[in-house]
Design goal:
CATH architecture: Sandwich
Structural class: mainly beta
Strand content: 35-45%
CATH class: Mainly Beta
Number of strands: 8
Distance between the termini: 22 Å
Largest sheet: 6 strands, antiparallel
Shape: globular
Radius of gyration: 13 Å
CATH superfamily: Golgi alpha-mannosidase II
């Protein structure tokens, strides 16, 4: 299990990465109204920096009714594909979530 620290105490994140680092699931939860209007990025540790990962939301969180206009690209059916090094060191843009809302992110390499 991987715990992910974020500067905003309203956002909690944690995940599970397979032993061979080919698959992972991360949960991002908004437990209160975020401090900032734009929550920033979320780094996903524990991944293989040399692998490329496809990141997609898991149902039912693939229909995020957050505060944004339009659907964030990571919440689309096709998701996004990024290197593990980028996911770990740069991260992904966090979608705006309502308090008590969750998004599950599924990552697969290959």
């Amino acid at each position: 299990m991987v715990r992910v620290d974020h500067a905003d105490p309203a956002l909690w994140a944690h995940g599970v990465v397979s032993h061979d680092r080919t698959e992972a699931v991360f949960a991002l939860t908004s437990v209160a109204t975020p401090v900032a209007a734009h929550p920033g990025t979320l780094r996903l540790p524990g991944l293989d920096p040399d692998a490329t990962y496809r990141l997609r939301p898991l149902p039912p969180t693939d229909q995020v009714p957050g505060m944004e206009r339009g659907t964030p690209v990571l919440c689309t059916k096709d998701g996004i594909t990024l290197p593990g090094s980028v996911l770990e060191h740069v991260g992904i843009q966090i979608p705006n979530l309502h308090p008590e809302q969750l998004i599950l992110l599924h990552l697969t390499s290959g």
